[in-house]
Amino acid sequence: MASGPFTLVQLADAVGMSEQDVCFFRDRSLLPPPRRRRGRSGDVAYHQEHVDRLLFISRALAYGFSFNDIAGLVGQNLLTCADVYRLAGKRVEKLKRLMGPDAPIAPLEHIMKKCSGVGSRSDCHILAVLSAERT
Questions:
Q1: Which domains are seen in the chain, by residue range?
Q2: CA 92, 124, 115: angle at the middle one, nearest 5?
Q3: What is the pLDDT of residue 2?
Q4: What pLDDT sits at residue 5?
Q5: What is the pLDDT of residue 134?
Q6: In the chain, which stretches have pLDDT less than 50?
Q7: Which of 36, 44, 49, 58 lies closest to 9 in space, CA to CA?
Q8: DSSP state of 68
């Protein structure tokens, strides 16, 4: 896939989302602001970093993370793998409370079992899966 620049429509199409979904994530600061195209038009332009972030958000939602959780995962407040692991553990517990002990959380628990919960963010298996760097 090309790395951009993309229009909003092209970006939404590239990640399989609606334009409204992309705007929703952008407006909640889960997506970096778009850049401006060079030249006279100065139109808004999205790039590969936007594609990557939207795919990360999609995977995080599929694993059961909330929008607040995702804001933490993409922000700077979770500094270590242990921080990410604790957040995932809290999400599992919350889902179990809300949906009962048979809640469909096996995928999240599965990636947590493969995560040591030790080291930096860059060593975190949970973030790697959400980024699709490795599984």
A1: 1-59 (1.10.1660.10), 63-135 (no CATH)
A2: 55
A3: 55
A4: 86
A5: 46
A6: 134-135
A7: 44
A8: H
In contact, 106 and 112? CB cutoff 8 Å? no
Whole-angstrom Cα distance, residue 12 to residue 118? 35
Burial 48-73 (b: 16+ CB within 10 A, else e): eebbebbbbbbbbeebbbeeebbebb
Q: Which of 60, 85, 81, 58 is nearest to 70 (CA)?
A: 60
Q: Which residues of 89-120 are buried (b: 16+ CB within 10 A; e: fewer)?
A: eebbeebeeeeeeebebeebbebbeebebeee
What is the Cα–Cα distance from 4 to 77, expressed in whole angstroms? 29
CA nearest 127: which of 86, 74, 76? Answer: 74
Check if the beta carbon of residue 117 is closer than 8 Å to that of residue 85.
yes
What is the structure's pLDDT at 130? 94
Name residue 56's amino acid: F
